[in-house]
Amino acid sequence: MLLRRFGHPGEIVTAALYYASHASGYTTGSLLRVDGLGPV
User: Fold this and answer.
1) Residue pLDDT, tens place only, 13-26
2) Residue 4's pLDDT is what?
3) Nearest-angstrom CA–CA distance, 38 and 3
4) Is this structure's pTM higher than 0.70?
5) Which of 2, 11, 25, 34 gives 38 a disulfide partner, CB atoms 3.0 to 4.6 angstroms apart?
6) HEC sequence for 1-40
7) In angstroms, rounded to a whole number, what is the distance separating the alpha carbons of residues 22 and 25?
8) Considering Cα of 15, then 17, then 21, then 23, what sign does the dihedral take?
9) What letter would DSSP give residue 5?
10) Average pLDDT estimate for 31-40
11) Comparing C-alpha atoms, which of 15, 20, 8 is closest to residue 34?
C-alpha cells in the first residue's frame, strides 16, 4: 500500500539504527528502501 506522503524521522529511525549497529555487520551490497511513496 502506497502512503503517498513523505516519512517522518521517527518512521525511518529503525532502518538508520540498523545500519549503524553491529547487527548490520554481515549486510553488504544491499539497499533497504524505506519509503511510502513507491517508485519515484
Assistant:
1) 988 898 899 998 98
2) 76
3) 8
4) no
5) 2
6) CCCCCCCCHHHHHHHHHHHHCHHHCCCCCCCCCCCCCCCC
7) 5
8) negative
9) S
10) 70
11) 15
- Rounded distance, CA 8 to CA 14, Å? 12
What whole-number distance in Å separates Cα of residue 19 and Cα of residue 28? 10
The beta-strand segments (E) located in the chain are none
Instruction: Return the C-alpha cell found at 22.
Output: 553491529
Q: 33 is written with which cell numbers?
A: 528502501
Mean pLDDT of 17-40: 80
Amino acid 30: pLDDT: 78
Q: Are 33 and 1 in contact (CB under 8 A)?
A: no
